[in-house]
Design a protein that fits this description.
Order of helices and strands: HHHHHHEEHH
Radius of gyration: 22 Å
Distance between the termini: 59 Å
Helix content: 55-70%
Largest sheet: 2 strands, antiparallel
Oligomer: single chain
Strand order of the largest sheet: 1-2
Number of helices: 8
Structural class: mainly alpha
Number of strands: 2
């Protein structure tokens, strides 16, 4: 009789559906690399549409071409472009515009990309900069005051715009958009 210790057997190697039997890199979809120059070129084309008054075309162009394979600088440029587009659209035009995009071909994916940009924009505008982090003053309440009231760089206004878009987007696309964005491995 063999004296094999059954507690040392790696049973994951015996399971055909185990992650030990296939590379986990295959779980993330393949994305083509995008250079910062290509994103900058796209941003200038989108801004030209925006200056021409075609805000829906500018938004569609930005959402149909997210730089999934770009570096951090390229993604930051595209984020700034998307936020600029969102800030230029009036609140009364949000719902009709989102409805038209949603009902068009590829509209669900485009609104999911918009949701990704909303979350990324919210995470960036809530992050204190290094200069404001140094000037934080502790308050007697235990909270830290990062910016003075009425001051700052307009981060509150940008956050308000992003939250308004989030509200309208959830009304149109539903909460499934949030789930799809949170489970998607591609980042913007």
């Amino acid at each position: 009789m063999a004296t094999m210790n059954w507690r040392t057997i790696n049973i994951d190697l015996l399971d055909p559906e185990s992650s030990a039997n296939f590379p986990t890199a295959t779980l993330s979809p393949a994305v083509s690399p995008v250079s910062a120059a290509e994103v900058q070129n796209l941003a200038s084309q989108i801004k030209q549409l925006l200056r021409g008054g075609d805000s829906e075309g500018a938004l569609r162009g930005a959402l149909e071409n997210p730089p999934y394979g770009g570096d951090a600088a390229a993604k930051e440029v595209h984020l700034a472009t998307v936020v600029e587009i969102l800030q230029s659209i009036k609140q009364s035009e949000m719902s009709p515009l989102l409805s038209r995009i949603y009902s068009s071909e590829g509209g669900v994916e485009a609104l999911d990309v918009l949701m990704k940009y909303l979350y990324k924009g919210m995470s960036h505008s809530s992050r204190p900069s290094s200069a404001s982090a140094r000037s934080m003053s502790p308050q007697t309440t235990g909270f830290s005051q990062i910016q003075q009231r009425g001051g700052g760089e307009g981060g509150g206004q940008a956050m308000s715009v992003l939250l308004s878009w989030h509200e309208k987007l959830v009304e149109i696309a539903g909460p499934g958009s949030i789930v799809r964005v949170m489970s998607d491995r591609r980042t913007v």
